[in-house]
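Worked example 3. Consider a protein that binds zinc ion.
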Amino acid sequence: MISAQNLKATLSMQEVLAFHGIDIPTRRKILCPFHNERTPSCHVYDDSFYCFGCGVGGDIITFEMMYSGISFRQALTWLSNLAGITVDSLPPAMGHTERKRRRDNAAADAELNHLAVEHRHLVHDLHVFKPRSPFDFVHERYVRALTNINNVKYVLNGKGF
Ligand SMILES: [Zn+2]
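Given these inputs, the predicted complex is written out as C-alpha cells:
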C-alpha cells in the first residue's frame, strides 16, 4: 500500500469515477452521486470534486469513502490496487526479498479488496431485495446476502477492519 499523497499523484478523479461507470462530459459536471438532482451540479476536477448542490466535495479518497461507504484505509487499499500499483511498477533494482514481500502484500490487499467489494454487494442486496411485507416474495439474493454477510464481516474484522 502506498501513501495517500502518492496515490493522489497516480490516480485522477476521472479515473476513479470511470471505474464506477460515471462518465465525465466535456463540461465536467456530473449528476451528483450524493444527492438527488436532475441538472448536474457536481464539478469534477483532475484531483477532486465539488458539488454546488449539496456542498459535498473532496479528493479521490474522500470520494471513494463516501461513494462505497468504506473507511479511509479501505479506500486507500482499494484505490492503490485500482491504480495498478503492483510489483511490475517497482524499480528493477529492488531486491528479491523485497519484491516477494511486496507481492505478498499485494495479494493480501487484493483479497481484502475482494472482501470489501463482496461486503458492499451484500449490503446492496440486503437493501434492494428486502421483502417489504411478510407477504412478499422472498428473493433468493436476499437470503444469500443474509447468510453471507456475517461471514464476510467476520473475516473483515479478523483482518483489522
Ligand atoms: Zn450533491
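Take a moment to read the result before moving on. Residues 32, 34-35, 42, 51, 53-54, 56 surround zinc ion (CB under 6 Å). Residues 86-92 have pLDDT under 50 and may be disordered.
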